[in-house]
Write a structure and sequence with these properties.
By secondary structure, the protein is an alpha+beta fold. It is 47% helix and 10% strand. The protein has 30 helices and 12 strands. An 8-stranded mixed β-sheet has the order 7-1-6-5-4-9-10-8. The protein has a two-stranded antiparallel ribbon with strand order 2-3. Strand 2 (15-19) and strand 3 (25-30) form a beta hairpin.
């Protein structure tokens, strides 16, 4: 008898488990990560098979008695033999769910070894089922000494069934074992030239046609399986080069290093396969499940990145999916590396992969105007079009931005009249609508601005295309920020781009200066304007002093004055925070746009967490007084009535509290556009958070000298 030691690895469905009083457990939710692993990372082809639901029983179909599903998983760097033991579990709300415990060993043809180990366990006939509290250690697989494979003579009834086409459903009344099912499936696999795939004691399966042999758990299960198989089409229209395409996709998503021949296979297929067939292929690899269940494994990130390349219309969906993960950002790095690898491979394809280039170009042209409808995608579109080695960034910077500049130039009525000039991008549906919407600004410079174009202004601003940014700032905001205006003008208050008159964003003193210089429509020399301004300032100062002397002392007034005196040289302007809730609108720079408020409400929980932990608590740990920090924060945000206690409840805070903080943050950011564009929320370690910490630390670490107007501890 020959014997050898086989290593059997395992891992299980990841849940947050809680023990019950009867010694059992309930699930408090899925974690999205596997638990009880004996290998560091799950093989990519195995994870892909799981994502494709190849081991899945229909929800609600798991039983107290476990189902056993066996498959050979091929492709990638290594073939694997995998068995899933499926049992019924429950959550803390009394709902049932299927729990999976996977056992696997390297190489095809080894399912019988895993079965032999399973049935050799000390518990005898009791199969090792899902147990969240059974500790497993990475690098310590189960080891089993196996002999020769067990061959069981098949009864005539079972031997006769092998003549049928797969999937073969063994009658529920026919005595059977998992070894027999594996043996029948192995014989059928050899006959059909397919990997072994079988199910034992199955109640219902999501993909019954993908198995060679199925042994149902009951008569009812047998009837359901027959109906499911009959209702599933046996044949679908063949897809040209389907095997090569699937093989290329599996290779691309399974490895960090992209191979030229895989990219070449996709490039060739782009010209031959319809979009609807591509969707079928991607979903077969797990794309639909990754989107619906929020699976962000490296394989799924690469798969959905590739899908967004091949199917440009799915690019907005891809960016939204990337954004939904929240704080974790490693999936962006995976996508960036994947894009860089494909970009390098494309350069090695004859003709520089014209099909790839066309698809990526379509994606860039589609995603930019899409921001008009989905401004919440702004940050991710900036990421997509700006990181240095990105596929979409390359096409944007090398071609699309030049096309946009060309077509906006053509919209100038004077240029439009020249012969033999043709648009390069505006003939696309979304761009054509955009062109029709903004055409009016060349005819009427005072036409009201349209807020839906603000996202495009901020996009081109962040992509460092000042001329195009200025154009959309004028249309979206009605004025252009100073720094952008300075880049596209030769001085003066007004300038133009693409023949469109721009208005520079100015402060109140600057507006007064321009007004006086153009007094009565006559230009007034600066030597006259300056004394006028000084005279106005002095009159205002004396009037303010007289008013102050008649006003009783108040702590808030003194605080505001102290803040102003102490803020000289700081990075933030002195601000007053004495208004009541009904007076808050007096400090508003510009009403917060609805779409920005809606996006900020979605992110308020994160804003609350960041403000509490990364601003206030971090400064407390550095020895500053918490109440002073909060008070100074309210002063900085120009509203001492802001409810900090309620705000740090995050998502559970009152709606009015959320909106008041969002508005205060938005107005604060609006006053510091050089630091960050106003968004109404704060993210971890971004500009607003860093500047708040810096300012508050400097402010409170160096308090003003005490005087008779500042009682000890009065600032708290």
């Amino acid at each position: 008898m020959n014997s050898a030691t086989v290593k059997i690895h395992e891992f299980s469905t990841g849940i947050q488990a809680e023990r019950t009083s009867d010694g059992g457990w309930v699930s408090r939710g899925f974690t999205g990560q596997y638990i009880n692993k004996t290998l560091d990372s799950i093989p990519a082809n195995v994870e892909s098979a799981i994502s494709n639901r190849e081991f899945a029983v229909s929800e609600g179909a798991s039983r107290d008695n476990p189902a056993i599903i066996g498959r050979e998983v091929r492709g990638g760097d290594q073939d694997w033999s995998v068995i899933a033991v499926v049992t019924k579990g429950g959550d803390d709300r009394g709902r049932s769910a299927s729990m999976y415990r996977y056992f696997l060993c390297e190489g095809a043809g080894n399912l019988w070894k895993i079965l032999a180990w399973i049935y050799s366990q000390p518990q005898g006939e009791k199969i090792p089922v899902f147990n969240p509290f059974e500790t497993k250690v990475v690098g310590q697989p189960n080891e089993y000494q196996v002999g020769n494979p067990l061959v069981v003579p098949l009864k005539n009834e079972l031997q006769y069934l092998l003549k049928n086409e797969a999937p073969i459903v063994i009658p529920s009344v026919q005595p059977c074992t998992a070894f027999i099912v594996n043996q029948m499936a192995t014989e059928k696999a050899i006959e059909n030239g397919q990997p072994v795939a079988w199910a034992f004691q199955a109640e219902a399966l999501e993909q019954p046609r993908s198995f060679l042999v199925i042994q149902p758990a009951s008569e009812k299960a047998e009837q359901l399986l027959h109906r499911a198989i009959a209702s599933t089409p046996q044949y679908t229209a063949p897809i040209t080069g389907e095997y090569e395409i699937k093989s290329a996709i599996k290779g691309l998503i399974s490895r960090e290093n992209v191979k030229l021949e895989q990219v070449q296979a996709i490039e060739t297929a782009l010209n031959q396969v319809q979009d609807s067939d591509w969707e079928v292929i991607f979903n077969a690899q797990g794309a639909a499940q990754a989107r619906s269940q929020g699976i962000y494994s490296p394989q799924m990130v690469r798969l959905l990145t590739l899908r967004a390349i091949v199917l440009p219309e799915t690019l907005p969906e891809f960016l939204s999916w990337m954004q939904k993960r929240g704080k974790q950002e490693d999936h962006y790095q995976v996508s960036e590396t994947f894009q860089s690898e494909i970009k390098s491979s494309i350069s090695g394809i004859a003709g520089n992969a014209q099909n790839f280039t066309l698809k990526i170009t379509q994606g860039v042209k589609l995603i930019i105007p899409r921001l008009i409808e989905q401004p919440e995608l702004l940050e991710n579109v900036v990421w997509l079009l700006s990181f240095p080695s990105g596929l979409w960034k390359h096409i944007y910077s090398q071609q699309v931005v030049l096309d946009i500049d060309h077509d906006l130039s053509l919209m100038n009525p004077k240029v439009r009249q020249l012969p033999n000039l043709h648009s390069k991008i505006i003939h696309h549906e979304k761009w054509e609508k955009l062109a029709n919407d903004v055409k009016v600004y060349w005819q009427d410079r005072y036409y009201p601005h349209q807020t839906q174009y603000q996202a495009l202004a901020e996009l081109f601003d962040k992509l460092e295309s000042p001329k195009i940014a200025a154009f959309f700032y004028q249309i979206g905001y009605g004025e252009v920020p100073k720094r952008i205006f300075a880049e596209v003008s030769n001085g003066g208050r007004n300038s133009n781009v693409y023949g469109l008159t721009l208005k520079k964003q100015v402060s109140f003193p600057e507006s007064l200066l321009f007004l006086l210089m153009e007094l009565g429509g006559i230009f007034v020399p600066l030597v006259i304007v300056v004394p006028l301004i000084l005279l106005t300032f002095m009159v205002g100062l004396l009037g303010g002093k007289a008013l102050f002397e008649k006003t009783p002392y108040s702590l808030e007034t003194n605080q505001s004055t102290t803040t102003s005196d102490n803020s000289k040289g700081d990075s933030f302007p002195a601000q007053t925070a004495t208004q009541s809730p009904k007076d808050r609108t007096t400090n508003i720079v510009d009403p917060i746009p609805q779409y920005i408020e809606e996006e900020a409400l979605k992110k308020f929980a994160e804003t609350s967490r960041v403000m509490n932990k990364e601003v206030v608590n971090e400064l407390v740990q550095e020895g500053l007084d918490k109440q002073q920090i909060i008070s100074e924060l309210k002063l900085l945000f120009q509203d001492i009535n802001l409810d900090y206690t309620d705000a740090i409840k995050g998502g559970k805070a009152k709606e009015t509290t959320k909106k008041e903080w969002i508005n205060a943050i938005y107005q604060y950011q609006s006053k510091n556009p050089e630091k960050t564009l106003p968004a109404g929320y704060m993210l971890s370690e971004k500009s607003t958070v860093q500047e708040l910490r810096k300012y508050l630390k400097k402010k409170l670490s160096n308090p003003p000298p005490q005087n008779f107007n500042t009682p000890p501890g009065g600032r708290g």
